[in-house]
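User: I'm new to structure prediction. If I give you an amino acid sequence, what do you actually give back? Let's try with this one:
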Amino acid sequence: MDKTKKDLLVFGYGLGIIALIFCIGGTMRHGWDLPQMVQAVCAIIFIGVTFVNWEALKPGYRGWMRVAHMIGTVVSTVILGLVFYAVFAPVGILLRILRKDHLDRRIDRAAASYWHQRPVTPIDRDRYTKQF
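Assistant: Good question. You get back a string of structure tokens that encode the predicted 3D arrangement of the chain. For your 132 residues, that looks like this:
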């Protein structure tokens, strides 16, 4: 099955099932009213169109994906911005106040080299096969 067909089938059946779940939940909570009827009709239409002619869902799927991409771009930008300003910025400010330099970026004019010597360990052949 090619990717386009699979995506359209997931879109059609998924949207139909989601509408059906909302219909059942609304019916259990509020009884059988107009919104539940509309949701049931939408569920039947989506599942039926997907079963009969899944290629008819292409225009709706393309529009849905454009909107989803825009929403994803906005949400990821907001989340990354919040993480940066809520986590990384305070940590950076705190480290500057405490004058900590975990990357060891200070220039030492008296140092001959910035190379850190590692302790010499004996060669263990089992360590090569179990790196983690």
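You can read the tokens as a compact description of the fold. Here is one thing that stands out. DSSP finds four helices and no strands in the chain.
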